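Example (one chain per record):
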Amino acid sequence: MKPKTNKRQAFQREKPDLPAEFESAEEPGKLFADPESVTIQEKRLQDLEIPNVKTDAFRLEGSVLERVQLAGGQFGSAVWKDVRLVGCDLANLRVRRITLVRVELVDCRLTGFFTTALDWQDVLIQNGDVRYAQFAGGRFRNCEFEGSNWQEADLQNADFAGCVFRSCNLGRADLHGAKLENADLRKSEVEGMMVGMNDLRGAIVDPAQAMILARLLGLQIR
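Predicted structure:
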């Protein structure tokens, strides 16, 4: 009998399950008019500006949003499932609870995004501006971040176990207390990242990153 090997499986994120066709939305701005609940299903919304929108609950499913401006919005809860957002402005959103499942955010602005309870699964942020975001204590499962700027983001106590940061900037991002076991940080900028020694346990880094992180932690390499 061959001995069992404990090989780490290759990362594979589930992509959004989107419909082949979308329903037309007449006067799409009215979709956001209800202050208690907004539900959008199987819609394609394009070139829409709805700044500072407020609603208690925002459910988005099986939809594509392109160049939709929601900056400064306030949501009590948000549940987005099987959604793709391209070129959208989500800066300074305030969401009490946000759950994303199979969501892609491409070329989106998330600067200053604030939430007190976050649960994301199979989420992609590609070429995103996530500076100053406040995701402390968030749970990220099987998520992928590519070419995104996380400078000065508050990620304290967040769970990034098994996630991938590819060509991201983590400079001055605060990851104290974060879970990074099997998180792949290779090819990302970690200079200035704020993190404790125990927080890095099990993280995947390249040799150059290891030297940078050793200096951050006050280690002497001789």
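Caption: The chain is about 5% helix and 35% strand.
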